[in-house]
UniProtKB/TrEMBL annotation:
EC supergroup of this enzyme: hydrolase
InterPro entries tied to this protein: Amidohydro-rel, Deaminase_MtaD/DadD, Metal-dep_hydrolase_composite, Metal_Hydrolase, MTA/SAH_deaminase
Cofactor remark: Binds 1 zinc ion per subunit.
Binding site for substrate: E108, H200, E230, D315
Span of domain Amidohydrolase-related: 70-417
Function: Catalyzes the deamination of 5-methylthioadenosine and S-adenosyl-L-homocysteine into 5-methylthioinosine and S-inosyl-L-homocysteine, respectively. Is also able to deaminate adenosine.
Protein name per Swiss-Prot or TrEMBL: 5-methylthioadenosine/S-adenosylhomocysteine deaminase
Organism encoding this protein: Pseudodesulfovibrio hydrargyri
Catalytic activity: S-adenosyl-L-homocysteine + H2O + H(+) = S-inosyl-L-homocysteine + NH4(+); S-methyl-5'-thioadenosine + H2O + H(+) = S-methyl-5'-thioinosine + NH4(+)
Pfam family, one: Amidohydro_1
Assigned EC number: 3.5.4.28, 3.5.4.31
Keywords recorded for this protein, A-Z: Hydrolase, Metal-binding, Zinc
Keyword tRNA-binding: no
Length: 449
């Protein structure tokens, strides 16, 4: 009996014990713990609680003292085009269609895998620096982006973007189907990288091809994502081509389901919102991009009230100029209030949910976006000594309204620290700076500007 009692009281093994002044758990109760700790084993959280209790309970191989810091789940970027960092600031202050057709698409057609890899690594560095640990991507030659993400320790869901018309990347939809199957096979055993089927939009891909691509997603059991109802102009194009609004096109083809994530949904009506909710379709809000392209303000609170799962994304760095989820969290909350004429709309907790748990569902990876036992140890720390975070009355409020992303001092995925106090542990950022200069020259030449 004595030996059993001793065994029961002996400290338990864990790989890492992280201490912090506060932990925003984002668990089901949305607990915020003070003077707390997180115990991690094999890349998973095994317990979150009072520091004194966990300190006595565990014998960690390593300790990480984040005193004076606030831990929170790594943010989840529900919509981006990572290699578009190469086009950051290249075509500003333009409406959506002019921006796409006159500036972005012509340069994109000339991109190669080397350039895309540089853009992807630049994007990974920015995500890590600003506290994002997972992202849903859509672009070209996605194997390159997946290898960049996996190599630096980030989680990614990748989608090969395609149009109905021939492109330099895919002359036909069928060629794209093979690329998607190949991508799925390539990353099948990678714990950090998954795939998705990614038609560009309802105005660039006809209904029958959208439906065929959805069948492919079902056969591979992976998510299906597309841009939808991004602006009134897009709606007008769909009405002119098919006599239907964007949501109706998807509904007629049976493409509203929990497998589906729709990006933007700015120009949606009450009836359409009800259809999205009833079908379990996910939506990703992109406030900075929508503002910059003057696409409009999505009715986020109305969608949430109807029961739609709404995540949050930055879109690409060419239509946002940042991949900083903290900025988009703040904008989502502020825009929501103006859009609905209600200061309580899209409150701080809602915006944080959108950037964590809700976006995780949009990725088809619902176990992400929280610090909770049995979930991946993906977390970040913010330095509470930053002047803009003093004093502290409400930690969630600070995360959404006061933080800029530059207070992030630690980023961790699966228990591995990727960034700590200014040091990138998985990326050569100084080398990336040189590559970025070379890429800027290439973009100027490719665009003729």
């Amino acid at each position: 009996m004595a030996s059993t009692a001793f065994a029961d009281s002996a400290p338990r093994a864990c790989d890492l014990l992280v201490r912090a002044d506060a932990v925003i758990t984002q668990d089901d109760e949305r607990r915020v713990l003070t003077d707390a700790a997180v115990a991690i084993l094999n890349g998973m959280v095994i317990e979150v609680g009072d520091y004194a209790t966990l300190d006595a309970r565990y014998d960690p191989l390593q300790r990480l003292d984040m005193s004076g810091k606030m831990l929170m789940p790594g943010l989840v970027n529900g919509h981006t085009h990572l290699p578009m960092t190469l086009l950051r600031g290249f075509a500003d202050d333009l409406p959506l269609m002019d921006w796409l057709e006159g500036h972005i698409w012509p340069v994109e057609a000339k991109l190669d895998e080397d350039l895309l890899g540089i853009g992807a690594r630049l994007g990974c560095a920015e995500l890590i620096r600003t506290g994002c640990t997972a992202f849903l991507n859509g672009y070209f030659h996605e194997r390159v982006t997946g290898e960049a993400a996996s190599g630096c320790g980030l989680r990614a869901v990748l989608g090969e973007g395609f149009f109905a018309f021939p492109s330099p990347f895919f002359p036909t939809a069928e060629v794209c189907w093979e690329a998607i199957r190949s991508l799925e096979e390539h990353f099948r055993d990678d714990p950090l990288v998954r795939t998705a089927v990614t038609p560009h939009a309802a105005f660039t891909v006809p209904p029958e091809v959208l439906a065929a691509s959805f069948e492919l997603a079902e056969s591979l059991d992976i998510p299906w994502q597309t841009h939808l109802a991004e602006s009134p102009t897009e709606t007008a194009v769909c009405l002119g081509k098919y006599g239907m609004r964007p949501v109706e096109i998807l509904r007629r083809e049976g493409l509203l389901s929990p497998r589906v994530t729709l990006h933007h949904c700015v120009d949606v009506e009450e009836k359409e919102i009800a259809q999205l909710a009833a079908s379990g379709t996910n939506v990703v809000h992109n406030p900075a991009s929508n503002l910059k392209l003057c696409s409009g303000m999505s009715p986020v609170q109305a969608m949430l009230d109807a029961g739609v799962n709404v995540g949050l994304g930055t879109d690409g760095a060419s239509s946002n100029n940042q991949l900083n989820m903290f900025r988009d969290m703040g904008l989502a909350a502020l825009m929501g209030k103006v859009r609905h004429g209600d200061a309580s709309a899209v409150n701080a907790q809602t915006a944080l949910d959108m950037a964590t748990r809700n976006s995780a569902r949009c990725l088809g990876w619902p176990e992400l976006g929280r610090i909770q036992a049995g979930h991946p140890a993906d977390m970040i720390a913010l330095d509470l000594s930053s002047p803009n975070l003093m004093p502290v009355f409400n930690h969630v409020s600070h995360a959404v309204y006061a933080s800029t992303g530059m207070e992030v001092c630690m980023t961790m995925v699966a228990g591995e620290v990727l960034y700590l106090y200014g040091e990138f542990r998985t990326l050569d950022v100084s080398g990336l700076r040189k590559e970025a200069v070379r890429c800027a020259k290439w973009v100027r030449n490719a665009s003729g500007k």
